[in-house]
Amino acid sequence: MNRAARRSMQLVALLAGLVVVDVVAHVTAVDPAAAVLPALPEFDVLAVQALRLSMGDDRVTLDRVGPDDWRMSAPFEAEADRAAIVGILQALRGGVPMDVRVDEGSLETYGLQAPGSILVEVVGAEGVVLTSFVVGSDTAGGSTFVRLPEDDVVYRARIGGRARYDKRPTGWRDPMITELAADQVASIGITRAGGTFTFERATGGPIGGPGPWSLVERPGFEVDQEQADGLAAGLAALRAGEILNPNYPAGLDTPPVVVTLRVEGEPEVRLRVGRTSAGTFIAKDGVESVYRVAGSILDRLDQDASTWADRRLLWFGWEKVHRMSLVEPSLTTVLEKDPATSAWSVVEPTNVAADLREAMYTARHLGELRADELVAVSAAEAGFGGGTKVVVTLLDGSSQTLEVGRFVPGRPPGREAVYVRAVGRPDRIGALSVGEWSRLRKAWAR
């Protein structure tokens, strides 16, 4: 091959190399703007003055009217759901990075095309938009399809899920029926077909807190303090599942239950509770709305006063237990806890096995054991004296004893129970489910 031919081949090889380099450069080059995904900017929650949401023909404006208070100004005036608004702001406050770029266009595929999409705008002082984005459908892994306004690029981002934003205007109304400090509730009056009874809380409890509850109409009646505290807490923070028009047929013309709540220094709160085939409802005096609530609220209130009696059988801190003994006519088994290691062992008799893994459960549940209900039977009818009992000895040497009698007669399958009583209160006889008694006995492998 002559020199000219060799030179021509070298030039061809060089050109081929330059083409390859050019192709590789074009393939591997990354547009810096495309490589960096956008993010929703962070903002100061206290700087937020309004939250606007638009979906189809619905335009909702939620305005801050106080540090912790919000009001809906469009499409109508109403108190707004503070908890829902705060939930959105907390989810967005630190800024939200886009997880991945998914597509460009095809907005309907991702729920990002009107009228199904939701435009969200967080607004600061003087109408300045602090952050805005369009919400589409939820996707796997807790993300949601989103896009920026005036942009067809589809991203995935963690904004708390579509359900936070996807509400009709009525869904942004404040669902709170009552907002009271539970420990400040001084009395609860319940009027039902069987009459009226009133729980009243004493003052001057531990460390200046509230004292115990009593039943005004029955002096000496021992109220279940835990139940009464739970009732006060529930009634102090009632939340509706739905807010309805005041003329909604809710069975409130002659309500089965009327509740009055009194807090010192506050106006009395009066609630009418009714029920129809459509559900359970509450009307609050002074408020032109009907609230749909859980049916369990009426079930709890529409009970005779006797169901609020103290059903405690034993009461001690489980960590203070030293020994637990199951005494039966033919055998006594004693479990002992090592105070240093909290490990349980069988100390009597030494040749009897026990399920020591269940000992902690038994100690905890015996420490706050309540009868399912109190019953009016004599000790003889309950079958006490047969020899079956549980004796709990505490680290300070004191003890508490639970006596177990015969089966409660007439119970249907699945609701069987045994008679029980605490030795210190022989007049208080209760029924305890067979299921609970069987679970307690597992510690002794019975």
Question: Please, could you describe this protein's structure?
Answer:
It is a single chain. The chain has about 450 residues and is α+β, with helices and mostly antiparallel strands. The chain is about 20% helix and about 35% strand. Strands 1-6-10-9-8-7-2-3-4-5 form a 10-stranded antiparallel sheet, with helices on one face. The termini are far apart.
Mean pLDDT score, rounded?
89
Beginning-to-end CA distance, first to last residue: 103 Å
Number of domains: 3
The strands making up the biggest β-sheet line up spatially as: 1-6-10-9-8-7-2-3-4-5
The major pleated sheet works out as: 10 strands, antiparallel
Structural class: alpha+beta
Indicate the percent of residues in helices.
10-25%
Low-confidence stretches: 18-34
SS field, number of helical segments = 8
Q: Radius of gyration from the CA trace?
A: 34 Å
User: What is the overall shape?
Assistant: globular
Q: How many beta-strand runs?
A: 26
Proportion in β-strands? 25-35%
Key terms:
3 domains; 33% strand; 10-stranded antiparallel sheet; 8 helices; 26 strands; 8-stranded antiparallel sheet; 446 residues; alpha+beta; single chain
